[in-house]
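For reproducibility, we list the full input for the magnesium ion complex.
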Amino acid sequence: MAAGAVPEEVLLNSDLIQELKEVARDAALLHGVLMRTKESPNSSEVVSYAPFTLFPTPLPRPLFQQAVQLQILFNRLVDKISQDLSFLEEALASTIKVDDFTAQLFNIHRTVQQEGHSQSTVLGLIRSDYMLDLGPDGKTTLKQIEFNTIAASFGGLSSRTPDVHRHILKVAGLLEHQKRVMDNNPAAEFASALAKAWELYGSGRAVVMFLVEDVQRNIFDHRCVENELWKRNVPVIRKTFDDVFKTGLLDQEKKLFVLVPCAVLCGSFLCCVFLQNWEVRLMMERSQAVKCPNIQTHLAGVKKVQQVLAQPGVLEKFFPNEPEAVAQIRATFAGLYALDVGEQGDRTVAMALANPEKFVLKPQREGGGNNIYGEDICRVLQGLKGNSERAAYILMDKIHPQPVENYLLCCNSAVKLTTCVSELGIFGTYIRQGTKMVWNQCAGHLLRTKSAEHDDGGIAAGVAVLDNPCLV
Ligand code: ADP
Ligand code: MG
Ligand code: MG
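The corresponding predicted structure, in tokenized form, follows.
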């Protein structure tokens, strides 16, 4: 049995597992690993635990450390991309012709670019996600799935889960295991970066505004960060797009007011689907508030950019005198392929059609549940063949993590032994003032685990659950 794995006498002992499930649910509630219910997503009258694994998942320490050490490089990379406007323009040229959502974002970027930016401080709260790929040679390597510059959620709840897992392991008699579950506090790290950005804005009267979606099931995740800000005496408000649409205004100096002056805007929304939301987004982007993310950083995180970065010579452009940095980042890239019109795109299509099970087809969307797998790849690509519309997608090599047996605790569903795979996210925070990076930190981690039978994941999508690494 691999070190750090839960021994079979525990994993298969049904009486003990039954007891541990009860212990686990209560521990999650006590430690604040909470989520509102599907039935009443906008009320905290009745709440439940956020879905999580019964046991933490073994993860090799060197690979974990590799991901952690990379984060400050990724922060720099994302920030460099967001400042390279001709790169963004070129990288996204084919995508914005056919993908409305990205085109809308791009229009906002163009507008504020023409008008001139009214705020030179940028705050990034980002998350780089990885899976551990088990190669045919039996070697495991760290491969990036994507990086998120918006909706990098679960920093709050993942600050609370280590205590839950340590408690379960103690009750299960696995004392050595519980020592391998690390402390983690992305909520405090995010709050520190937000507080710094608020301080740099330089007005004690101004507040940090969290821009939230209409459906707020995951409010406790945000509250963890909000409360850390209040602890630092930084005032916070929560507003929806609709609130900002109805009450938001810019004064002559482009200061944003949503009833109160706003210093920092932190977006936890996944998408803006309504026209009025785009108007709101433009107004916020024009404002003096420090945006998190600003529109260029949002664009830097789209999947098409990720694909372009993997092409030869592109990373070198961003790190001209740092071959080490280039090599470290590139080592985590899986194969990524363009689907633009032309020969290269035709080759990608042929390759995908010949072996669809080897790939993932990704549109420019966030939040899980949007990717296309297996035979569906053929169906979608054949439907688009020779068509410029295929540029709305990118193709990626499918990663194959080593499965691990665990129990997934989800509200209202039966708990059974499940073959699972995991995805490791590393949070990063950075602040740039003008051209100077004044803050660049790794801000903790998030492990998400799902049944191996699901191709796509995501906690918000109801597939993945919260987990912790048990370092081995
Ligand atoms: P999103 O922005 O919607 O989260 P992702 O690129 O993270 O998009 O894909 C969603 C999920 O699909 C991931 O959490 C992961 O479970 C799965 N996935 C994505 N890319 C791959 C890949 N290359 N190999 C295996 N699974 C993948
Ligand atoms: Mg994403
Ligand atoms: Mg993702």
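The chain has a mean pLDDT of 93. Residues 129, 146 surround magnesium ion (ligand 3) (CB under 6 Å). Both points were considered when choosing residues for closer inspection.
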